[in-house]
Predict the structure of Ribulose-phosphate 3-epimerase.
Amino acid sequence: NAAPAVLPSLLLCDFGDLKGEVAKLHDAGARVLHLDVMDGHFVPNMTYAMPIVEGLRRHTDMPLDVHLMISDPLKYAKPMVDAGADMLTFHVEAVRNAAETADLIRQMGVNVGVALNPETPLASLRECLADIDMVLVMSVEAGFGGQKFNPIALEKLRTLRSEFPDLLLEIDGGIDATTIGPARAAGCDLFVVGSAIFKKHDYNSAIKALTDEIAA
Ligand code: DX5
Ligand code: ZN
């Protein structure tokens, strides 16, 4: 399985200085960036889309893990791939046929993840699990940074990990130095972090505090 990693979420960063933020995150040890794309429809909040992804692509070689919180992921998947996404994750709640959606995205040449909100049962993933690289287990309702961690995510991670030893598992929402350890213990590989990095001045010590908690 993948080595555990902390993925900074570019939601609470300084968008006036994206290039500087990316450099600081890389210096602090980040090796993958998590990009939160929201459309004001699937979730009430709006963020950014292809032009920002494309701009980031020009300034870093780090893989871009794009979390699509949008109502029509297939409509924007190819533009996102062209903009430089390496992994595209769509929400199972947003699509009619998750297996087909995953398949179509995979044909665009990227890795595919499927996300599910805290209220969404694991059973909703049944028919697509064979077609995906990663499950993104949301530990907050998608839409905003800075929300409180919902432990229902730990239960889902444990179930997925026991049934699918090789599946990549990611968690997103309310991850900090106290919640990251339990998520790791539940079998998670990738830990998306917003507030616990960007509300700190020193990204180095913030990321180190998190990686220390998940070191084997
Ligand atoms: C929530 C986003 C998350 C969020 C995480 O909809 O998908 O990536 O930015 O932020 P924190 O760590 O503050 O919960
Ligand atoms: Zn996210």
In short: The chain has a mean pLDDT of 97.
